[in-house]
Structure formats: structure tokens, C-alpha cells
Amino acid sequence: MKVGFVGLGVMGRPMAGHLLAAGHELAVWARRPDSMVPLVEAGARACATPAELAACCEVVISVVTASADVEQLALAPDGLRAGFVSGAIHVDMSTIAPGTARRVAARYAEKGIGWLDAPVSGGEIGARDATLAIMAGGAPEVLERVRPLLACLGKTIVHIGPAGAGQVAKACNQMIMVNAIQACAEAMRLAGAHGVDLHKVREALMGGSAASRVLDVMGGRMARRDFVAGIQARLHHKDFAILMEEARQLGAPLPVAAQTWQQLNALMALGGGRDDTASLLRVLEPVSTSR
Predict the structure, then answer these.
(1) Hey, which residues are catalytic here?
(2) 3-state DSSP of 114-154
(3) Between 1.10.1040.10, 1.10.760.10, 1.20.210.10, 3.40.605.10, what CATH number should domain 169-289 receive?
(4) What is the dihedral of CA 253, 98, 63, 234, to 10 degrees?
(5) Does the reported pTM lie above 0.90?
(6) Using CA atoms, how far apart are residues 146 and 159, in angstroms rounded to an integer?
(7) Could you give the CA distance from residue 77 to residue 52 in angstroms, rounded to a whole number?
(8) Closest C-alpha among 235, 240, 191, 247 to residue 215
(9) Which pLDDT score is estimated for 289?
């Protein structure tokens, strides 16, 4: 299949590589041309604009940062919509607002272009190992057309509903995960305040009902005081801004998530946006020990 890819960062680059390795004809575009070099050297075609990319592809997959980035990529004068022919598909695997997904899908529908919002969970490791969980929003027939591509990238593919529904599921995923990171931070803070060994507390908890992937990974980072970014905290802060705005619009009370968002706000104020979200522990610590 002729596939385009946009977003060649820590997740996008290995994902694009999987498609190339599977034998698909890959083309790429990036705002930073140097990020395309490894894939071009491996056989991908470099394009000068998103419109040029869309014109030579049946499907374009994107993994970018924010809602505004997706709208610009799709709808700018030299964006994907300008280059796509009727019947082409844009699969956006970014984490964006559900409303943005619905608006872009509607604009594409005017030209007979398919849309799938397909955000993922699994992070850099899941992208590298092609074990991502994929949450899809869009028409079922669009999902079936691109399912062979998604199968190159993830091990779990679930159709949630129409356009935007994938992003709703991703918001729920982020809410549960980051709330759990905050809970781990509070547990580690309490253990630290008692002066007990955080590594031993984590080991004990991992053998009981509190065990979780978040406690395993993030609790481990907190115990080691390893705050080098796996996923930068600013990205979770961005995700929480999306879900809290959705809650405001819908009148849906999210009291625990609201408190976690305030802790993320505090972490941003401390300058921790590019550190790992395990740095939520430092928000809870006295100033003299928070670094």
C-alpha cells in the first residue's frame, strides 16, 4: 500500500519503520527535514509539503503533538486535504480534542476523504515493539481498509465509535494513568516522610492488590529519583487540558482528575515540563529536597 507518514519523533519514527519493513511503499514529510533522513536512507520518499505527500498516498498516518498541529496539517492551503484524492484516508494517531477530530473528519467528508482518529497507548516502548493499543474513531469500513497497516503498529485495535470516539477513549486512558501516577507520588511521599526505603515499599506493593504497570514503572523511577523523561510531563499536562475542557463543556464532574491537573500545573510552574511525569513526586516535597 502507498502510505504517508507525518511525525517522526520518538514514537513516529519506529512506527514508520515498521510500515517500511512490512513492504509498504512509504513517503514522509516533516517540518524538520533532517528527521526524514534515516527513513529516506532506508527507502522512503521525502516530500516537500503535506499536499505533495497526500497526492502520492492512499493513506497518510500522522503522530503530532496538539489539536492545532493536526488542523494545520490537514486543512492548511498546502495541507493534506489539498492533495488527497477522493477515497484517500487520513489516520491521525495523535492525542487531540474529540471536537477537533470531528471537525477535520467533516471537512474531509466534503471531498470524499476518509478519516480515522486512532490514538495509541503504550508509549515509546510500544511504538518500538509494535505492541501499541489503538483506539479507533471513524467509519467501520475506513477502519477495515487500514487495519492491515494498524496491525503493523499495535497488538490491540478496538473500534470505539464514530469520528472523535477514539479520542474520547484516549482521554479516559490518560485520566486513569496520570491519576495513578499522582497516587504513586503520594504513596512514595508518605513512605519518604516516614524515612522508610522506597524501593522496599514498592516491592511490597507490587506483590499485592496495589500492583499496577504504573506503580512498577513510575514508582520505580520515583524510588530511584530518575526523572529523565520517558514521556515528558508537558504532554500529559496537554492531555489533561483537553479532558478537563471536555468535562467543562459536558458538565461532567471529574474531582480526582481536577486535583491531578492542578498538580501538573504546579509541576509546569516548577519548570518540570520536559522531565518525566514521575516528577509529580517533587511537587509534594519540601523545596529543599525537591531536586
Answers:
(1) 170
(2) EEEECCEECHHHHHHHCCEEEEEEECHHHHHHHHHHHCCCE
(3) 1.10.1040.10
(4) -30
(5) yes
(6) 12
(7) 12
(8) 191
(9) 54
Of the pLDDT bands very low, low, confident and very high (cuts 50, 70, 90), residue 181 is: very high
Residue 214 CA, chain-centre distance (Å), reads 16
The domain locations on the chain are 2-161, 169-289
pLDDT in tens, 68-100: 999 999 999 999 999 999 999 999 999 999 999
The cell for 276 is 518525566
Is the CB of residue 178 less than 8 Å from the CB of residue 240?
A: yes
Judge whether 2-161 and 169-289 match in fold.
Answer: no
Amino acid (1-letter code) at residue 82? A
What residues have CB less than 8 Å from 180, skipping those under 6 apart? 212, 214, 215, 218
Q: Which fold has domain 2-161?
A: Rossmann fold (3.40.50)
